[in-house]
C-alpha cells in the first residue's frame, strides 16, 4: 500500500514555494488575501482571471484546477462557501473536495495553504486530523485477488503551510493522528474485503501473529479448539462444528501503560463466512457474508493505530473467529449447548451465530479484569432496518460508557445511536429447554440480540456496537473500516484522562 506522507511547514513566501500543486481555500464573495493573493500575483493574475469568468464561485464543494507559474505547477482552488457558516461539516466537505480533485491527477505532491480558513485553532486541528484520515483512506485500493492491481494514487506527499494559521507542531501532531487512524481503517477494510476462501480464522490468527512480531508492546496468543473445549466454550465451538476451518480465539494484548492500569477489552465478531449454517441463508447477496468479520477487522485496525500512536493505555483485542457452515456435523436447530459461563443455550436458529461466538469471548474477557469491554459485531439484519448505514447501534449496561462512546463517535464523525436494553425485552429469550434461547422472536431483533449478549457481560462495564449497517457498502461493494475511528477516539480520550 502506498502511503501518503503529511508534513507541516511554516512557509513565508507562498508564491515561490515549490510544489506540484498549490491548494487554496476560497470563500464566496471574499477578496483574495494572503497566500491566495501572493500566488495570484506570481501567476500574473490567473486566479483573478478565472474568478472573473464566473465558472468558479467558491461554492462549497466546487473546485477548479489551473496551470500555475512561479513555484507552483498547478493551482487548485477549493470552494468553501460562506465564511460565516464554515463549520465541521463544511470542513469535511473541504477535505473531501481536495481529495476528489487530486485523485486522478499526476501531481506527486501538493501544498495546502491554511491561512484564511475560517476556523478556530481547535477546529483547524480537527480538520487537519480529518484531512489526513480522509486522504489516507482515499489512497486505498483493493488489489489482493486481482491479476492486475489497480494503479496507485500518484500523490505521495501533502505539505500543509501553517503560516498565519497555527503552529507547525500542532498541525503535524493532528495529521499524524489522522494518518494513523486512516491506516487502521484501511487495514480493517483490507481484511474485511478479502474473500472467505482467503480470510479464514487461521488467516486472521496468522495476521495477528504477524502484527505482534517485533513489537514489544503487543503480545499475541491464539487459543485453538482443543483449549476452547477444555475451557468449556461449547457455544463458540457449536458455530465452527459444521466447518472444515477450525475456530480460533485470538488475543492481542497492547501494553502502553503500567501493568496496574486496567485494560479496555475490544471483542470482535470474526465470522469469516456466514452461510447461516443449517438455517441456511437465501442466495441473494450471500457473498456479502464474507464481511461478517467486520467487527474483528475493526479490532485489528484499532490495534494497528494504537501501536502506531503508542497510546499510553492498556488494551486487549479479542477475536472470536469461526466459519458458519452446514454439514452433517453442524449444529442443528433445537440443539442445546453449554457456554463457558455455565449457562445452557437452545440454538433455535443456527444463523444467529454471532452471539454464540461472542458470549464465550465475553466470559473469557472477564479474565483481564477490564476497565470496560466493548464488543463490535455485524450482528443483526434488524439493525440495518432500524438505522440503515449511517449509524452503528450502541447498547450499554453503563451510562457513562455509553456517553463516552457516543461522544467519541461524534468527534470522529463515525457515529453511533443508543438503543434500549430494557428488561422487558429479555423475556423474549425464554426457552423451555435451556437457560436461554439464541433468538428472541420477531420484534426488536437487534435489541434481543444485545439482550442475549448482556447476560454474559454482567460482571463489568460493557457496550455492544452492532455494525451490520455501517461495516460495508453494497454499491459499490466494499468494507468501510468502521468503527475504527470511533474506537481510536474513545481510547485517545481515555488515555488523555489517565495521563
Ligand atoms: N451476520 C448476520 C447479520 C447480518 C445480516 C448483517 C445481513 C448484515 C446483513 C447474522 O449472523 C444473522 O444472520 N443474523 C440473523 C439473526 C436471526 C436469525 C435472529 C438475522 O439478522 O437475520
Ligand atoms: Mn448469521
Ligand atoms: Zn453472522
- The rounded distance between the terminal residues' Cα atoms is 34 Å
CATH class group of the largest domain: Alpha Beta
Low-confidence blocks of residues: none
Q: Rounded to an integer, what's the Rg over CA atoms?
A: 25 Å
CATH homologous group name of the largest domain:
Zn peptidases
Overall tally of structural domains: 2
Q: Walk across the major sheet and give the strand order.
A: 7-8-10-9-13-17-14-15
Mean pLDDT: 97
Task: Give the name of the CATH architecture of the largest domain.
Answer: 3-Layer(aba) Sandwich
Instruction: Report the sheet-strand fraction.
Output: 15-25%
Instruction: Give the bound compounds.
Output: ligand BES, manganese (II) ion, zinc ion
Q: Can you give the helix content as a percent range?
A: 25-40%
Major sheet summary line? 8 strands, mixed
Q: What is the general shape?
A: elongated
**Strand count:** 19
Q: Determine the CATH topology of the largest domain.
A: Aminopeptidase
Structural class: alpha/beta
Count helical runs: 15
Subcellular location: Cytoplasm
Enzyme class: hydrolase
Protein name: Probable cytosol aminopeptidase
GO molecular function: aminopeptidase activity
Amino acid at each position: 500500500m502506498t502511503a501518503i506522507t503529511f508534513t507541516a511547514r511554516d512557509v513565508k513566501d507562498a508564491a515561490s514555494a515549490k510544489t506540484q500543486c498549490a491548494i487554496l481555500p476560497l470563500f464566496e464573495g471574499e477578496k483574495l488575501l494572503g497566500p491566495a493573493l501572493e500566488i495570484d500575483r506570481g501567476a500574473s493574475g490567473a486566479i483573478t482571471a478565472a474568478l472573473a469568468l464566473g465558472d468558479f464561485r467558491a461554492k462549497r464543494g466546487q473546485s477548479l484546477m489551473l496551470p500555475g507559474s512561479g513555484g507552483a505547477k498547478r493551482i487548485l482552488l477549493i470552494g468553501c462557501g460562506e465564511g460565516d457558516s464554515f463549520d465541521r461539516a463544511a470542513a469535511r466537505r473541504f477535505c473531501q473536495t481536495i481529495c476528489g480533485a487530486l485523485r486522478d491527477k499526476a501531481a506527486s505532491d501538493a501544498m495546502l495553504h491554511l491561512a484564511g480558513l475560517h476556523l478556530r485553532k481547535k477546529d483547524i486541528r480537527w480538520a487537519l486530523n480529518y484531512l489526513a484520515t480522509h486522504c489516507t483512506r482515499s489512497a486505498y485500493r483493493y488489489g489482493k485477488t486481482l491479476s492486475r492491481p489497480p494503479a496507485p494514487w500518484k500523490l505521495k506527499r501533502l505539505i500543509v503551510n501553517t503560516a498565519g494559521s497555527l503552529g507547525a507542531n500542532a498541525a503535524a501532531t493532528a495529521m499524524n493522528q489522522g494518518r494513523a487512524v486512516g491506516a487502521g481503517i484501511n487495514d480493517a477494510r483490507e481484511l474485511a474485503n478479502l474473500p472467505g476462501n482467503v480470510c479464514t480464522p487461521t488467516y486472521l490468527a496468522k495476521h495477528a501473529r504477524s502484527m505482534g512480531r517485533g513489537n514489544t508492546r503487543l503480545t499475541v496468543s491464539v487459543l485453538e479448539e482443543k483449549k476452547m473445549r477444555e475451557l468449556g466454550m461449547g457455544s463458540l465451538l457449536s458455530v465452527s462444528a459444521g466447518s472444515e476451518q477450525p475456530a480460533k480465539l485470538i488475543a492481542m494484548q497492547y501494553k502502553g501503560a503500567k501493568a496496574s492500569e486496567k485494560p479496555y477489552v475490544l471483542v470482535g465478531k470474526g465470522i469469516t463466512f456466514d452461510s447461516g449454517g443449517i438455517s441456511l441463508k437465501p442466495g441473494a447477496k450471500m457473498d456479502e457474508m464474507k464481511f461478517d468479520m467486520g467487527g474483528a477487522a475493526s479490532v485489528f485496525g484499532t490495534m494497528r493505530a494504537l501501536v502506531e500512536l503508542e497510546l499510553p493505555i492498556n488494551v486487549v483485542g479479542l477475536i472470536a473467529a469461526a466459519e458458519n457452515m452446514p454439514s452433517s456435523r453442524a449444529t442443528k436447530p433445537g440443539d442445546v449447548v453449554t457456554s463457558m459461563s455455565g449457562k445452557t443455550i437452545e440454538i433455535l436458529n443456527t444463523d444467529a451465530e454471532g452471539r454464540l461466538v461472542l458470549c464465550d469471548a465475553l466470559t473469557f474477557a472477564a479474565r483481564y479484569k477490564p476497565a470496560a469491554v466493548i464488543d463490535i459485531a455485524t450482528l443483526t439484519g434488524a439493525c440495518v432496518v432500524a438505522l440503515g448505514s449511517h449509524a452503528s447501534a450502541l447498547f450499554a449496561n453503563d451510562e457513562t460508557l455509553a456517553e463516552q462512546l457516543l461522544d467519541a463517535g461524534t468527534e470522529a464523525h463515525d457515529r453511533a445511536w443508543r438503543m434500549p436494553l430494557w428488561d422487558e425485552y429479555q423475556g423474549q429469550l425464554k426457552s423451555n429447554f435451556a437457560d436461554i434461547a439464541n433468538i428472541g422472536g420477531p420484534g426488536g431483533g437487534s435489541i434481543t440480540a444485545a439482550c442475549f449478549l448482556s447476560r454474559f457481560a454482567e460482571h463489568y462495564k460493557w457496550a455492544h456496537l452492532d455494525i451490520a449497517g455501517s461495516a460495508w457498502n453494497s454499491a459499490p461493494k466494499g468494507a468501510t473500516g468502521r468503527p475504527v475511528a470511533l474506537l481510536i477516539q474513545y481510547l485517545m480520550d481515555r488515555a488523555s484522562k489517565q495521563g
